[in-house]
Amino acid sequence: MRERPRTPGAIAKLVLWPLALVTALDMVFYKAMPGHHTNDFRPVYNAINAFLRHEPVYTANLTSVDPHYLYPPGGTLLLAPLGLFDEATGRTVFLFLNLLAAMLAVYLLLRMFGYTLKSPLAPAAYFALFLSEALVNTLTFGNVNGLFFLAEVVFLSLLLARRDVAAGVVLGLTIAIKPILVPLLLLPAVRKQWSTVAIAVAMPVVTTAIAWPLAADPAHYFVHNLPYSLQVRDYFNSSISGMGLYHGISPIATLLVRGLFAVLVAVSLWLLYRYYRDQELFFVTTATGVLLTAEFTLSSLGQQYYSMFLFPFLFTVVLRNSVLRNWPAWLAIFAFASYETWLLFRWPDIGRDLEYSRTPFGWGLLLIVVCCVLADRYLAARRQGRLADGIDPPSLAPDFPPRDRDALGTEPARVTGVTG
Questions:
Q1: Looking at the record, which segments are called Disordered (predicted)?
Q2: In whole angstroms, what is the distance from residue 152 CA to residue 349 CA?
Q3: Smallest Cα–Cα separation from 282: which of 138, 108, 414, 85?
Q4: What's the whole-model pTM score?
Q5: What sign does the dihedral 81-83-84-87 (CA atoms) show?
Q6: Per-residue pLDDT for 2 more than 90?
Q7: Are 79 and 48 in contact (CB under 8 A)?
Q8: CA-to-CA distance for 95 and 83, rounded, in angstroms?
Q9: Could you read off the pLDDT of 359-369 as tens digits, one per residue?
Q10: What is the pLDDT of residue 61?
């Protein structure tokens, strides 16, 4: 009996699924389960137990470099079920919840872009997820980013489906715990989905109001912890401000660099809104990437594992009009996504600078690439007199890999980012 010839996609799946599985097992049982001296879960667990016993929560010495509990009273209320477990069990439960949430988020992204688990894109995406610094350190440190990644993807899916109330609830719950996804409020605002904005803003107010009489020191958060959260720190901080403070760069020079990147971000967002807002999938996911990368780079605090929230943007590489189909973009992505370390023990000073600078370099380069690609498309279209038809080049490589047949047509929002 003759063996049927295998397609390139089938061969890719045969290679990538085992790699993804083994990488996942290594990541969970060798890296995440043993934990790390950086323990983000312990202060959360201690704060929840203090909240449940009606004891003061916001009592940490914020001058130390240990992880601090910085979530508002409403966030404490939402996380309170973790107090049902002892600390070791709670950390394990929290770890696997974040792992499963991140895996589900990738599956939903596949569906959003018109793919199923039968596509070779699926094992490639999971392999990249399990290799990424973002997921490894989220699980190893015991952080909540995996659940927030899922919430981000669910929010984007609901936004594209015009399910405005549900989208607002999902985004609002994340803001009630920590405001990492606040910049995404701009998306429903420019799409005139005002109920989404209103509900997302109301959710943290409502949860805080509910938690206020249940907490022992809710006001202390606003006078003690919130001001600290807005300060620039010179450790574990990959934002431009953090790097400037760490290297002793003049505040004026740091401000000028931030201003320059703010201009690049504004230009990118304007071009996306002006010429791509009707291509919903491409516009929403690309604008998400620009907004969040700008937040990590320009705000007071940016940490490498925040890069998990850029996965929806990275998925746009499969679209024919993606701004990521060039090598500088993937040099930038490797810089902030890789778990590898650049510490050089033979040359410790050079290695330390390389390691601490690679994440802001990657985020900054990504913002530059997006702005340059969009600006180049705009200038080329203006020279050729075709701005009325958009700024996409006349000839673009097709979507790759091809979409799965059983995923096409199930949700129109998934394919609106593709031009004919």
A1: 392-420
A2: 38
A3: 414
A4: 0.93
A5: positive
A6: no
A7: yes
A8: 15
A9: 999 999 999 99
A10: 81
